[in-house]
Amino acid sequence: xxxxxxxxxxxxxxxxxxxxxxxxxxxxxxxxxxxxxxxxxxxxxxxxxxxxxxxxxxxxxxxxxxxxxxxxxxxxxxxxxxxxxxxxxxxxxxxxxxxxxxxxxxxxxxxxxxxxxxxxxxxxxxxxxxxxxxxxxxxxxxxxxxxxxxxxxxxxxxxxxxxxxxxxxxxxxxxxxxxxxxxxxxxxxxxxxxxxxxxxxxxxxxxxxxxxxxxxxxxxxxxxxxxxxxxxxxxxxxxxxxxxxxxxxxxxxxxxxxxxxxxxxxxxxxxxxxxxxxxxxxxxxxxxxxxxxxxxxxxx
Length: 300
Prior knowledge:
Elements: H1 25-42, H2 46-74, H3 77-94, H4 105-111, H5 117-145, H6 150-162, H7 167-189, H8 193-209, H9 215-228, H10 235-265, H11 267-279, H12 292-299
Helix pairs in contact: 1-4, 1-12, 2-3, 2-5, 2-9, 3-8, 5-9, 6-9, 7-8, 7-10, 9-10
């Protein structure tokens, strides 16, 4: 979770914009910070992008390991969900990044014209594939290291796949995408690091305890079960189901949360940013993107 320093909420740090009296100054500040943060993410080098996504897969994989172990020992899904938050705390403190964390901040950068759709697709594909790679590595290791967890692994994975390509599965994916994007928003606007950690723990718990269909989490569980063997599904089934879940995550993260936040800011603000970035003399002709340092100059 490579988030910028949380915004301070101890009173208005900037006066009301006379042109936008309907929008809180703090919201406008957060908007500018999101554009800048998104530009940094979208302009990462390929090795940086890949390593950040890979570490996120490791982090979530350890969260799944904690969930499996605690649920196996206690029989409690609630305690298992609580244990799963270990992975999300690791994500936040280690500044790694899940695919679904890139539905709000980088999209804001692209919508305001400071980066291109191609940049966004590169970020999404890179983090998604490396999230899976890191998660699969942990899954293969955990089922070898803890054979006593095999029954729990199989039970959870069969429950996930058993829902099939149904409305229930899709809505669980929508909720997962919305939850992660809401968490991203709350982290960005938390007044303190403690507030950010509370947000991380709360949404990590929801994802783990309620078994929402987050594509990386369900993929780790299903892959672990396939390594154990004896499943009723195979790689093709996982590919179909995970693709279905990705669509639901996108609908929840982009459709329910990101669009609502952009509407909250209002069309005039977004159009103003687009016009300013379009006129920027520092805009790269080849990609249509603007360097973060140049965005800071444009915002000044």
